[in-house]
Amino acid sequence: MHAKWAFVLLAAVFALGFVFLGIGSGSNGITDALQNAFNFGRGSGTSISSLEHKTQKNPLDAKAWRDLATAYEAKHRTNDAIAALSQYVGLRSHDASAFAELASQYNQQSQQYIQDYQNAAERVAAATSPALAFAPPSTTPLGRAFNDPKILQDPITSFVQQQAQAAEQTALTSYQNAQRNAEHAYQHVARLTPSDPNAQLQLAQAAQAASDPKVALAAYEKFLKLAPQDPLAPNVRKQVAQLRKQLAALAPSTPSHK
User: Fold this and answer.
1) Which of 227, 208, 244, 184 shows the shortest CA–CA distance to 22?
2) Which element (helix H / strand E) includes 10?
3) In this structure, what are the phi and psi dihedrals at residue 28, rounded to the nearest 5 degrees?
């Protein structure tokens, strides 16, 4: 149950993040994110198979990896695009735009894991729904048996439930990993463009989605230093206040010495 609520919270943070990303700060924001995610306005005249062959023949050809990533994105092959972009940034570690695009692909990947989680949760709910309209009181032996799925559940239903629960946990773990990977990619963007407030905003939102309040707080604070008059500054200050409270609540209490 706690894992489910944690997932819902993470998904909500991710969704709300797009409200903040890039609005103000002199950037196109959502337009840029969509272009990165869906490859709008970009094309490749070379087939995927030929590009794959080119990268296999020469793994150090950065341009070939970049073009291959673009071709994968055009076909919505997110996992393959991530793999190709990861190869590219390994060869061109100073390309901030490529890291930003990699982060957006991780965000796209996390959305698929959200769908996978929801599908698994529906299967879990279907497998655990009561078979009878009226159950006996839970205080009676029969009632306790009725509420214990291990007693009354048939083997097939039990197997389906276990498989769905495993898929649910896998989707949650995969979602969290994708969000952490997006955060790491945005950390590279922020490092390569230290004077860009939008990079700090993107990093902060990604860190919140990855449940990393320390990084989120530091990025929000740097954003305010770089763009104190930005239209988003009031909302960012609210986030800063909330994160400070969250970190204070998590900090171990120091015993007083009399």
Assistant:
1) 227
2) helix 2-20
3) -80, -10
**Nearest CA among 124, 132, 179 for reference residue 4:** 124
For residues 63 and 91, what is the distance between their CA atoms, to the nearest angstrom?
A: 10
Which distant-in-sequence residues (6+ apart) come within 8 Å of 130 by Cβ? 146
CATH number of 2-130+143-250: 1.25.40.10
* pLDDT per residue as tens digits for the range 143-201: 666 566 555 555 666 777 788 888 888 988 999 999 999 999 999 999 999 999 999 99
The domain limits of the chain are 2-130+143-250
Lowest mean pLDDT segment, chosen from 21-30, 117-126, 224-233 = 21-30
End-to-end CA distance of the chain: 42
pTM for the full model? 0.71
* SS3 category, 60: coil
The set of residues, in sequence order, having a beta carbon less than 8 Å from that of 91 and lying 6+ positions away, is 60, 62, 65
pLDDT at 253: 61
- Distance between CA atoms of 149 and 34, rounded to whole angstroms? 45
Among all chains, which residue has been given the structure tokens 């609520």? 5
Are 162 and 150 within 8 A, CB to CB? no
What is the spatial distance between Cα 37 and Cα 108, in angstroms, rounded to a whole number? 7
- Phi, psi (degrees; rounded to nearest 5) at 196: -95, 110
The C-alpha atoms of residue 240 and residue 246 are separated, in whole angstroms, by 10
Judged against a pLDDT cut of 80, whether residue 74 lies above it is answered with yes
Residue 22 CA, chain-centre distance (Å), reads 18
- With cut-offs at 50, 70 and 90, classify the pLDDT of residue 117: confident
DSSP for 44-76, written as a single string: -SS-HHHHHHHHHH-TT-HHHHHHHHHHHHHTT
